[in-house]
Amino acid sequence: MTTRVEIVNDFLAINVKEGSTIQDIVEASGSALPFGCRDGECGTCVVEVESGMEFLSPKTDKELKVMKEICYGTCTPNSRLSCQMKIAKPNGLVRLKY
Amino acid sequence: MSNAIKISQNVYYIGVSDADIRTFDIIMKTANGTTYNAYLIKTEEGVIILDTVKEEFQEEFFSKVESLCSYDDVKYIVMHHLEPDHSGALPELTKRAPQAKVFISPMAQPMLKSIGKRDSMEFETVWTNKELKLGSKTLKFLSTPNLHWPETMSSYLVENKILFSGDVFGSHYYDSRIFDDLVGDFDYAFKYYYDHIMRPFKTDVLNALRLYEPLEIDIIANLHGPIIRHDPSKYLNLYKKWSSKDEKLHGKKVVSIFYVTSYKNTKEMAQSIFDGIEANESLIANIYDLTALDESNMISILEESTGIIVGSPTINGDVPKPVWNLLSCMMLIEKRGKFGGCFGSYGWSGEAVEMMNSRLKSLKFRVPLQPMKIKLIPTQKELLDCYEYGFEFGEVVNGKMMEMTL
Fold first, then answer.
1. Which of B84-98, B118-132, B297-311 shows the lowest mean pLDDT across its residues?
2. What single string gives the DSSP state of each residue in B103-160?
Protein backbone atom coordinates (compact mmCIF):
# COMPACT_ATOMS: atom_id res chain seq x y z
CA MET A 1 0.00 0.00 0.00
CA THR A 2 2.57 2.56 -1.10
CA THR A 3 2.66 5.40 -3.58
CA ARG A 4 5.51 5.66 -6.06
CA VAL A 5 7.24 9.07 -6.09
CA GLU A 6 9.46 9.72 -9.08
CA ILE A 7 11.88 12.66 -8.91
CA VAL A 8 12.64 12.78 -12.58
CA ASN A 9 15.73 15.05 -12.53
CA ASP A 10 17.47 12.67 -10.16
CA PHE A 11 16.29 9.47 -11.84
CA LEU A 12 14.85 8.34 -8.51
CA ALA A 13 11.75 6.20 -7.94
CA ILE A 14 10.81 5.89 -4.28
CA ASN A 15 7.93 3.83 -2.92
CA VAL A 16 6.58 5.51 0.20
CA LYS A 17 3.75 5.15 2.67
CA GLU A 18 0.76 7.46 2.96
CA GLY A 19 1.58 10.38 5.23
CA SER A 20 5.23 10.63 4.15
CA THR A 21 6.37 14.19 3.58
CA ILE A 22 8.16 15.05 0.36
CA GLN A 23 10.88 16.68 2.46
CA ASP A 24 11.56 13.38 4.25
CA ILE A 25 11.49 11.49 0.96
CA VAL A 26 14.00 13.86 -0.64
CA GLU A 27 16.37 13.67 2.30
CA ALA A 28 16.20 9.90 2.68
CA SER A 29 16.63 9.18 -1.02
CA GLY A 30 19.67 11.40 -1.69
CA SER A 31 17.76 13.62 -4.11
CA ALA A 32 19.48 16.95 -4.82
CA LEU A 33 16.20 18.91 -4.74
CA PRO A 34 17.12 22.12 -2.91
CA PHE A 35 15.35 23.48 0.16
CA GLY A 36 15.61 26.97 1.60
CA CYS A 37 13.56 28.01 4.63
CA ARG A 38 11.68 24.66 4.83
CA ASP A 39 8.66 26.59 6.06
CA GLY A 40 6.76 27.63 2.95
CA GLU A 41 8.13 31.14 2.81
CA CYS A 42 10.96 31.33 0.27
CA GLY A 43 9.96 29.26 -2.80
CA THR A 44 13.33 27.53 -3.13
CA CYS A 45 11.82 24.03 -3.15
CA VAL A 46 9.25 24.66 -5.86
CA VAL A 47 8.57 21.65 -8.13
CA GLU A 48 6.29 20.84 -11.01
CA VAL A 49 3.94 17.96 -10.38
CA GLU A 50 3.97 16.25 -13.77
CA SER A 51 1.37 13.75 -12.64
CA GLY A 52 -0.34 12.50 -9.50
CA MET A 53 -1.54 15.75 -7.92
CA GLU A 54 -4.54 13.82 -6.57
CA PHE A 55 -2.23 11.72 -4.40
CA LEU A 56 -0.80 14.80 -2.66
CA SER A 57 -2.16 16.84 0.25
CA PRO A 58 -3.98 20.06 -0.78
CA LYS A 59 -2.09 23.30 -1.32
CA THR A 60 -1.53 25.20 1.93
CA ASP A 61 -2.16 28.91 2.40
CA LYS A 62 1.61 29.44 2.50
CA GLU A 63 1.99 27.72 -0.86
CA LEU A 64 -0.75 29.82 -2.40
CA LYS A 65 0.94 33.00 -1.16
CA VAL A 66 4.38 32.01 -2.51
CA MET A 67 2.91 31.04 -5.89
CA LYS A 68 1.11 34.39 -6.13
CA GLU A 69 4.13 36.44 -5.11
CA ILE A 70 7.64 34.97 -5.35
CA CYS A 71 6.85 32.54 -8.16
CA TYR A 72 4.64 34.90 -10.14
CA GLY A 73 5.22 34.43 -13.86
CA THR A 74 7.29 31.28 -13.44
CA CYS A 75 4.87 28.89 -11.73
CA THR A 76 1.98 26.93 -13.23
CA PRO A 77 -1.17 25.42 -11.69
CA ASN A 78 0.93 22.27 -11.17
CA SER A 79 3.65 24.02 -9.17
CA ARG A 80 3.97 22.99 -5.52
CA LEU A 81 6.33 23.60 -2.63
CA SER A 82 8.07 20.40 -1.61
CA CYS A 83 8.31 21.45 2.03
CA GLN A 84 4.53 21.72 2.26
CA MET A 85 3.42 18.45 0.64
CA LYS A 86 2.58 15.01 1.98
CA ILE A 87 1.52 11.81 0.28
CA ALA A 88 -2.22 11.74 0.91
CA LYS A 89 -3.25 8.47 -0.73
CA PRO A 90 -1.75 5.02 -1.39
CA ASN A 91 -1.45 3.15 -4.71
CA GLY A 92 -0.56 6.23 -6.74
CA LEU A 93 2.18 7.58 -8.96
CA VAL A 94 3.53 11.08 -8.36
CA ARG A 95 6.08 12.51 -10.80
CA LEU A 96 8.01 15.58 -9.63
CA LYS A 97 10.38 17.76 -11.62
CA TYR A 98 12.45 20.66 -10.29
CA MET B 1 33.68 64.09 -3.29
CA SER B 2 31.78 64.26 -6.59
CA ASN B 3 28.31 65.54 -7.34
CA ALA B 4 25.12 63.73 -8.25
CA ILE B 5 25.12 63.02 -11.99
CA LYS B 6 22.08 63.14 -14.23
CA ILE B 7 21.76 59.91 -16.20
CA SER B 8 18.36 60.55 -17.80
CA GLN B 9 15.42 62.95 -17.48
CA ASN B 10 14.85 63.34 -13.70
CA VAL B 11 17.01 60.33 -12.91
CA TYR B 12 20.32 60.79 -11.08
CA TYR B 13 23.34 58.74 -10.06
CA ILE B 14 23.95 59.19 -6.32
CA GLY B 15 26.42 56.34 -5.85
CA VAL B 16 29.96 56.46 -4.49
CA SER B 17 33.38 55.18 -5.46
CA ASP B 18 35.64 52.84 -3.51
CA ALA B 19 38.72 53.35 -5.66
CA ASP B 20 41.21 51.76 -3.29
CA ILE B 21 39.50 48.47 -2.43
CA ARG B 22 41.61 45.53 -3.71
CA THR B 23 39.63 42.51 -2.50
CA PHE B 24 35.86 42.28 -2.54
CA ASP B 25 33.73 39.72 -0.71
CA ILE B 26 36.89 37.75 0.14
CA ILE B 27 36.97 35.95 -3.22
CA MET B 28 37.32 38.72 -5.80
CA LYS B 29 40.38 40.79 -6.70
CA THR B 30 39.54 44.38 -7.57
CA ALA B 31 42.53 45.91 -9.32
CA ASN B 32 40.43 48.89 -10.41
CA GLY B 33 38.47 49.34 -7.19
CA THR B 34 34.70 49.39 -7.39
CA THR B 35 31.64 51.60 -7.05
CA TYR B 36 28.44 51.29 -5.04
CA ASN B 37 25.83 52.62 -7.41
CA ALA B 38 22.58 54.16 -6.21
CA TYR B 39 19.98 56.26 -8.00
CA LEU B 40 17.36 58.91 -7.37
CA ILE B 41 14.20 59.54 -9.39
CA LYS B 42 12.46 62.90 -9.14
CA THR B 43 8.73 63.15 -9.85
CA GLU B 44 6.09 65.85 -9.46
CA GLU B 45 4.80 64.02 -6.38
CA GLY B 46 8.04 63.18 -4.66
CA VAL B 47 11.28 61.26 -4.84
CA ILE B 48 12.19 57.58 -5.13
CA ILE B 49 15.64 56.45 -3.97
CA LEU B 50 16.92 53.22 -5.44
CA ASP B 51 19.46 51.44 -3.21
CA THR B 52 22.05 53.02 -0.94
CA VAL B 53 25.81 52.52 -0.44
CA LYS B 54 28.31 50.92 1.94
CA GLU B 55 28.01 52.48 5.38
CA GLU B 56 31.49 54.03 5.48
CA PHE B 57 30.64 56.06 2.36
CA GLN B 58 27.21 57.19 3.48
CA GLU B 59 28.03 60.86 4.09
CA GLU B 60 28.93 61.32 0.42
CA PHE B 61 25.71 59.53 -0.53
CA PHE B 62 23.65 61.80 1.75
CA SER B 63 25.27 64.95 0.42
CA LYS B 64 24.25 63.90 -3.08
CA VAL B 65 20.68 63.24 -1.93
CA GLU B 66 20.60 66.65 -0.23
CA SER B 67 21.82 68.34 -3.40
CA LEU B 68 18.71 67.06 -5.20
CA CYS B 69 15.87 67.11 -2.66
CA SER B 70 14.93 67.38 0.99
CA TYR B 71 14.39 64.21 3.02
CA ASP B 72 10.71 65.13 3.34
CA ASP B 73 10.42 64.68 -0.43
CA VAL B 74 11.49 61.02 -0.28
CA LYS B 75 8.36 58.91 -0.67
CA TYR B 76 9.84 55.51 -1.44
CA ILE B 77 13.10 53.59 -1.14
CA VAL B 78 13.62 50.59 -3.42
CA MET B 79 16.16 48.03 -2.22
CA HIS B 80 17.08 45.71 -5.07
CA HIS B 81 19.64 43.93 -2.90
CA LEU B 82 20.22 43.98 0.87
CA GLU B 83 23.91 43.11 0.91
CA PRO B 84 25.69 45.66 3.16
CA ASP B 85 27.53 47.32 0.26
CA HIS B 86 24.11 48.51 -0.93
CA SER B 87 22.13 48.69 2.29
CA GLY B 88 24.80 50.23 4.52
CA ALA B 89 23.16 53.66 4.49
CA LEU B 90 19.60 52.34 4.77
CA PRO B 91 19.32 52.61 8.58
CA GLU B 92 20.39 56.26 8.50
CA LEU B 93 18.31 57.05 5.41
CA THR B 94 15.15 55.71 7.06
CA LYS B 95 15.95 57.85 10.11
CA ARG B 96 16.30 60.95 7.97
CA ALA B 97 13.26 60.08 5.83
CA PRO B 98 11.05 58.13 8.28
CA GLN B 99 7.96 58.63 6.13
CA ALA B 100 9.48 56.73 3.18
CA LYS B 101 8.16 53.24 2.52
CA VAL B 102 10.78 50.63 1.63
CA PHE B 103 10.14 48.22 -1.24
CA ILE B 104 11.81 44.82 -1.06
CA SER B 105 11.30 41.35 -2.50
CA PRO B 106 9.36 38.83 -0.36
CA MET B 107 12.56 36.92 0.32
CA ALA B 108 14.21 40.06 1.70
CA GLN B 109 11.64 40.30 4.46
CA PRO B 110 13.43 38.04 7.00
CA MET B 111 16.66 40.00 6.44
CA LEU B 112 15.28 43.52 6.69
CA LYS B 113 15.15 43.79 10.48
CA SER B 114 18.79 42.80 10.83
CA ILE B 115 20.08 44.80 7.89
CA GLY B 116 17.95 47.84 8.73
CA LYS B 117 19.09 47.79 12.39
CA ARG B 118 15.57 48.76 13.42
CA ASP B 119 12.71 46.92 15.06
CA SER B 120 10.17 48.36 12.70
CA MET B 121 10.37 49.86 9.26
CA GLU B 122 7.47 50.53 6.93
CA PHE B 123 7.92 48.23 3.98
CA GLU B 124 6.04 46.48 1.20
CA THR B 125 7.01 43.34 -0.67
CA VAL B 126 6.95 43.45 -4.47
CA TRP B 127 7.43 40.99 -7.33
CA THR B 128 7.13 40.68 -11.10
CA ASN B 129 4.26 42.71 -12.56
CA LYS B 130 3.70 44.80 -9.43
CA GLU B 131 4.40 48.44 -10.15
CA LEU B 132 4.89 51.72 -8.37
CA LYS B 133 3.39 54.87 -9.86
CA LEU B 134 4.55 58.23 -8.57
CA GLY B 135 3.85 61.40 -10.52
CA SER B 136 4.55 60.70 -14.15
CA LYS B 137 6.94 57.81 -13.43
CA THR B 138 6.15 54.10 -13.46
CA LEU B 139 8.52 51.60 -11.92
CA LYS B 140 7.79 47.95 -12.71
CA PHE B 141 9.32 45.35 -10.41
CA LEU B 142 10.94 42.15 -11.65
CA SER B 143 11.74 39.10 -9.49
CA THR B 144 15.32 38.06 -10.23
CA PRO B 145 16.29 35.82 -7.30
CA ASN B 146 19.83 34.55 -6.58
CA LEU B 147 21.53 37.28 -8.62
CA HIS B 148 23.28 37.42 -6.36
CA TRP B 149 21.46 36.71 -3.09
CA PRO B 150 18.10 34.92 -2.86
CA GLU B 151 16.34 38.25 -2.24
CA THR B 152 17.72 40.20 -5.20
CA MET B 153 15.32 41.85 -7.64
CA SER B 154 15.33 44.33 -10.53
CA SER B 155 13.03 47.09 -11.72
CA TYR B 156 12.26 48.94 -14.95
CA LEU B 157 11.49 52.64 -15.24
CA VAL B 158 9.01 52.66 -18.10
CA GLU B 159 9.13 56.32 -19.16
CA ASN B 160 12.95 56.47 -19.25
CA LYS B 161 13.54 52.90 -20.48
CA ILE B 162 16.00 52.28 -17.65
CA LEU B 163 16.60 48.81 -16.26
CA PHE B 164 17.71 48.93 -12.64
CA SER B 165 19.34 45.54 -12.71
CA GLY B 166 20.73 45.17 -9.20
CA ASP B 167 24.00 43.25 -9.20
CA VAL B 168 23.23 41.85 -12.66
CA PHE B 169 25.47 43.38 -15.36
CA GLY B 170 27.78 44.78 -12.71
CA SER B 171 31.57 45.06 -12.72
CA HIS B 172 34.01 45.81 -9.97
CA TYR B 173 35.59 48.62 -11.93
CA TYR B 174 35.93 52.20 -10.77
CA ASP B 175 36.35 54.97 -13.31
CA SER B 176 35.32 58.54 -12.56
CA ARG B 177 33.68 58.82 -15.99
CA ILE B 178 30.98 56.29 -14.82
CA PHE B 179 29.35 55.60 -18.23
CA ASP B 180 30.46 52.60 -20.28
CA ASP B 181 31.00 54.59 -23.47
CA LEU B 182 33.33 57.01 -21.65
CA VAL B 183 35.17 54.43 -19.57
CA GLY B 184 36.47 52.44 -22.50
CA ASP B 185 37.37 48.77 -22.12
CA PHE B 186 36.24 47.14 -18.88
CA ASP B 187 35.37 43.80 -20.48
CA TYR B 188 37.74 41.79 -18.27
CA ALA B 189 36.05 43.12 -15.14
CA PHE B 190 32.58 42.47 -16.56
CA LYS B 191 33.44 38.81 -17.30
CA TYR B 192 35.30 38.35 -14.00
CA TYR B 193 32.29 39.64 -12.10
CA TYR B 194 29.96 37.33 -14.01
CA ASP B 195 32.22 34.34 -13.34
CA HIS B 196 32.31 34.90 -9.60
CA ILE B 197 28.82 36.18 -8.87
CA MET B 198 26.47 34.96 -11.60
CA ARG B 199 27.99 31.76 -13.01
CA PRO B 200 26.86 29.57 -10.07
CA PHE B 201 23.28 30.63 -10.87
CA LYS B 202 23.09 30.26 -14.65
CA THR B 203 19.52 28.99 -14.53
CA ASP B 204 18.47 32.10 -12.61
CA VAL B 205 20.35 34.31 -15.09
CA LEU B 206 18.38 32.78 -17.95
CA ASN B 207 15.12 33.31 -16.02
CA ALA B 208 16.06 36.97 -15.46
CA LEU B 209 16.92 37.44 -19.14
CA ARG B 210 13.45 36.18 -20.05
CA LEU B 211 12.04 39.07 -18.00
CA TYR B 212 14.50 41.63 -19.43
CA GLU B 213 14.33 40.69 -23.09
CA PRO B 214 10.82 42.02 -23.84
CA LEU B 215 11.82 45.42 -22.42
CA GLU B 216 13.09 48.29 -24.50
CA ILE B 217 16.25 49.18 -22.59
CA ASP B 218 18.19 52.41 -23.20
CA ILE B 219 20.21 52.32 -19.98
CA ILE B 220 21.25 49.54 -17.60
CA ALA B 221 21.64 51.14 -14.19
CA ASN B 222 23.48 48.44 -12.25
CA LEU B 223 24.86 48.39 -8.71
CA HIS B 224 28.61 48.17 -9.49
CA GLY B 225 30.87 49.65 -12.13
CA PRO B 226 30.07 51.53 -15.31
CA ILE B 227 26.44 52.39 -16.06
CA ILE B 228 25.64 50.89 -19.45
CA ARG B 229 24.05 53.18 -22.01
CA HIS B 230 25.89 52.27 -25.20
CA ASP B 231 24.37 49.14 -26.75
CA PRO B 232 22.89 47.46 -23.63
CA SER B 233 21.89 44.51 -25.83
CA LYS B 234 25.59 43.58 -26.09
CA TYR B 235 25.65 42.86 -22.38
CA LEU B 236 22.35 40.97 -22.39
CA ASN B 237 23.73 38.80 -25.19
CA LEU B 238 26.97 38.14 -23.30
CA TYR B 239 25.01 36.98 -20.25
CA LYS B 240 22.86 34.77 -22.46
CA LYS B 241 25.89 33.25 -24.17
CA TRP B 242 27.74 32.59 -20.92
CA SER B 243 24.66 31.15 -19.16
CA SER B 244 23.40 28.91 -21.95
CA LYS B 245 24.15 25.33 -21.04
CA ASP B 246 25.08 22.49 -23.32
CA GLU B 247 24.65 19.29 -21.33
CA LYS B 248 26.56 17.24 -23.86
CA LEU B 249 30.00 17.39 -25.43
CA HIS B 250 30.39 15.75 -28.85
CA GLY B 251 26.80 14.55 -28.35
CA LYS B 252 27.60 12.71 -25.13
CA LYS B 253 27.44 13.45 -21.39
CA VAL B 254 30.82 13.77 -19.71
CA VAL B 255 31.91 12.05 -16.50
CA SER B 256 35.20 13.34 -15.07
CA ILE B 257 37.32 11.52 -12.51
CA PHE B 258 39.72 13.59 -10.40
CA TYR B 259 42.23 11.88 -8.15
CA VAL B 260 45.45 12.15 -6.17
CA THR B 261 47.55 9.15 -5.27
CA SER B 262 50.50 8.32 -2.98
CA TYR B 263 51.30 4.70 -3.89
CA LYS B 264 49.18 4.28 -7.03
CA ASN B 265 46.38 2.50 -5.13
CA THR B 266 43.85 5.28 -5.56
CA LYS B 267 45.11 5.70 -9.14
CA GLU B 268 44.35 2.05 -9.87
CA MET B 269 40.87 2.53 -8.47
CA ALA B 270 40.44 5.60 -10.69
CA GLN B 271 41.46 3.63 -13.76
CA SER B 272 38.98 0.82 -13.05
CA ILE B 273 36.16 3.30 -12.43
CA PHE B 274 37.13 5.00 -15.72
CA ASP B 275 36.92 1.65 -17.53
CA GLY B 276 33.49 1.03 -16.04
CA ILE B 277 32.17 4.38 -17.23
CA GLU B 278 33.73 3.93 -20.66
CA ALA B 279 31.77 0.68 -21.07
CA ASN B 280 28.76 2.91 -21.70
CA GLU B 281 29.21 4.15 -25.27
CA SER B 282 26.95 7.14 -24.79
CA LEU B 283 29.27 8.69 -22.19
CA ILE B 284 32.69 10.32 -22.35
CA ALA B 285 34.93 9.51 -19.37
CA ASN B 286 37.94 11.66 -18.49
CA ILE B 287 40.54 11.19 -15.80
CA TYR B 288 42.73 13.86 -14.17
CA ASP B 289 45.60 13.87 -11.66
CA LEU B 290 44.78 16.84 -9.44
CA THR B 291 48.41 17.54 -8.56
CA ALA B 292 48.91 18.84 -12.09
CA LEU B 293 45.66 20.69 -12.76
CA ASP B 294 45.27 24.47 -12.56
CA GLU B 295 42.17 25.90 -10.92
CA SER B 296 40.94 27.51 -14.13
CA ASN B 297 41.08 24.12 -15.84
CA MET B 298 39.34 22.50 -12.88
CA ILE B 299 36.45 24.94 -13.24
CA SER B 300 36.16 24.42 -17.00
CA ILE B 301 36.13 20.64 -16.59
CA LEU B 302 33.63 20.77 -13.72
CA GLU B 303 31.33 22.92 -15.83
CA GLU B 304 31.30 20.56 -18.81
CA SER B 305 30.89 17.42 -16.68
CA THR B 306 27.51 15.97 -15.74
CA GLY B 307 29.20 13.42 -13.48
CA ILE B 308 32.12 14.24 -11.14
CA ILE B 309 33.96 11.52 -9.22
CA VAL B 310 36.70 12.46 -6.77
CA GLY B 311 39.32 10.08 -5.41
CA SER B 312 41.81 10.56 -2.62
CA PRO B 313 43.79 8.60 -0.05
CA THR B 314 43.58 9.71 3.57
CA ILE B 315 46.63 11.57 4.86
CA ASN B 316 46.83 12.55 8.54
CA GLY B 317 43.13 11.74 8.84
CA ASP B 318 42.27 14.34 6.21
CA VAL B 319 41.87 15.08 2.51
CA PRO B 320 45.10 16.48 0.99
CA LYS B 321 45.15 20.05 -0.25
CA PRO B 322 45.00 19.48 -4.05
CA VAL B 323 41.62 17.81 -3.53
CA TRP B 324 40.35 20.60 -1.29
CA ASN B 325 41.36 23.00 -4.09
CA LEU B 326 38.97 21.15 -6.40
CA LEU B 327 36.23 20.91 -3.78
CA SER B 328 36.52 24.61 -2.92
CA CYS B 329 36.35 25.91 -6.48
CA MET B 330 32.99 24.15 -6.86
CA MET B 331 31.49 27.29 -5.28
CA LEU B 332 31.96 28.95 -8.68
CA ILE B 333 29.87 26.53 -10.74
CA GLU B 334 26.20 25.65 -10.90
CA LYS B 335 25.63 22.25 -9.29
CA ARG B 336 22.06 21.76 -10.46
CA GLY B 337 21.78 18.56 -12.49
CA LYS B 338 25.25 17.27 -11.64
CA PHE B 339 26.05 13.87 -10.12
CA GLY B 340 28.86 13.23 -7.67
CA GLY B 341 30.78 10.28 -6.33
CA CYS B 342 33.87 9.53 -4.23
CA PHE B 343 36.47 6.84 -3.79
CA GLY B 344 39.87 6.24 -2.23
CA SER B 345 42.41 3.81 -0.85
CA TYR B 346 43.27 4.20 2.80
CA GLY B 347 45.68 2.71 5.31
CA TRP B 348 44.10 3.17 8.72
CA SER B 349 40.80 4.96 9.27
CA GLY B 350 40.05 6.42 5.81
CA GLU B 351 38.24 9.65 6.73
CA ALA B 352 39.00 11.38 3.43
CA VAL B 353 36.34 9.59 1.41
CA GLU B 354 33.56 10.45 3.86
CA MET B 355 34.72 14.08 3.98
CA MET B 356 34.60 14.39 0.21
CA ASN B 357 31.24 12.65 0.03
CA SER B 358 29.82 14.94 2.67
CA ARG B 359 31.10 17.99 0.78
CA LEU B 360 29.44 16.87 -2.48
CA LYS B 361 26.15 16.22 -0.72
CA SER B 362 26.28 19.59 1.04
CA LEU B 363 26.78 21.30 -2.31
CA LYS B 364 23.62 19.51 -3.57
CA PHE B 365 25.27 17.24 -6.05
CA ARG B 366 23.11 14.19 -6.58
CA VAL B 367 25.22 11.45 -4.95
CA PRO B 368 23.59 8.21 -6.08
CA LEU B 369 26.03 5.56 -4.81
CA GLN B 370 27.84 4.72 -1.59
CA PRO B 371 31.49 5.79 -1.87
CA MET B 372 34.14 3.21 -2.73
CA LYS B 373 36.74 2.67 0.02
CA ILE B 374 39.52 0.10 -0.29
CA LYS B 375 42.12 -0.69 2.35
CA LEU B 376 45.62 -0.18 0.92
CA ILE B 377 46.40 -2.17 -2.24
CA PRO B 378 43.25 -3.11 -4.19
CA THR B 379 42.81 -6.77 -5.08
CA GLN B 380 41.61 -7.87 -8.50
CA LYS B 381 38.17 -8.45 -6.98
CA GLU B 382 38.18 -4.94 -5.52
CA LEU B 383 39.21 -3.43 -8.84
CA LEU B 384 36.30 -5.28 -10.40
CA ASP B 385 34.07 -3.64 -7.76
CA CYS B 386 35.48 -0.27 -8.86
CA TYR B 387 34.66 -1.14 -12.47
CA GLU B 388 31.09 -1.99 -11.41
CA TYR B 389 30.90 1.28 -9.45
CA GLY B 390 31.96 3.23 -12.55
CA PHE B 391 29.52 1.33 -14.73
CA GLU B 392 26.60 1.89 -12.32
CA PHE B 393 27.52 5.58 -11.86
CA GLY B 394 27.54 6.01 -15.63
CA GLU B 395 24.18 4.31 -15.94
CA VAL B 396 22.64 6.73 -13.42
CA VAL B 397 24.19 9.77 -15.14
CA ASN B 398 22.72 8.45 -18.35
CA GLY B 399 19.22 8.31 -16.92
CA LYS B 400 18.78 4.93 -15.28
CA MET B 401 16.00 5.14 -12.68
CA MET B 402 17.07 4.03 -9.20
CA GLU B 403 14.34 2.24 -7.28
CA MET B 404 13.98 2.28 -3.52
CA THR B 405 11.38 1.74 -0.84
CA LEU B 406 11.19 3.83 2.31
1. B118-132
2. EE-GGGHHHHHHHHTSS---EEE--TT-EEEETTEEEEEEE-TTSSSTT-EEEEETTT
Q: Does the beta-carbon distance from B129 to A72 stay under 8 Å?
A: yes
CB within 8 Å of chain A, chain B residues 111-140: 125, 127-129
Length of chain B: 406
CA distance, residue B281 to nearest chain A CA (Å): 19
**CATH number of the domain at A2-97, out of 1.10.3720.10, 2.60.40.10, 3.40.50.80, 3.10.20.30?**
3.10.20.30
What average pLDDT score do residues A23-29 get?
93
For chains A and B, count residue pairs whose Cβ atoms are closer than 8 Å.
77
What domains does chain B contain, in order, with CATH numbers?
A: 5-243 (3.60.15.10), 253-396 (3.40.50.360)
Q: What is the pLDDT of residues A33-88, one digit of tens each?
A: 989 889 998 888 999 999 999 999 999 999 999 999 888 888 899 999 999 999 99
On chain A, the residues whose CB falls within 8 A of the CB of B366 are: 9-10, 30-32
- Our CA dihedral for A45, A46, A50, A56, rounded to 10 degrees, sits at 70
Q: Which residues contact B156 (CB under 8 A, 6 or more apart)?
A: B139, B140, B142, B162, B163, B164, B215, B217
Interchain contact, B404 vs A15, CB within 8 Å? yes
Residue among A41, A72, A81 with most chain B CBs within 10 A, to mutate: A72
Residue A95 burial class via C-beta count within 10 angstroms: exposed 0-12, middle 13-18, buried 19 and up: middle
Nearest CA to CA, how far is A72 from chain B (Å)? 6
Task: Concatenate the DSSP letters of all residues of B348-372 into one string.
Answer: SS-HHHHHHHHHHHHTT-B--SPPE
User: Amino acid identity of B74?
Assistant: V
CA distance A77 to A30: 27
- Residue A9 C-alpha, separation from nearest chain B C-alpha, in angstroms: 7
Task: Report the pLDDT value the prediction gives residue B1, as an integer from 0 to 100.
Answer: 62
CA separation, residue A97 to residues A1, A53, B367 (Å): 24, 13, 17
Say if residues B168 and B76 touch (Cβ distance below 8 Å). no
Q: Quick one: CA dihedral B284, B287, B290, B293, positive or negative?
A: negative
Full-model pTM: 0.91
The fraction of chain B above a pLDDT of 90, given in percent, is: 93
CA-nearest residue of chain B to A74? Answer: B207
Domain ranges of chain A: 2-97
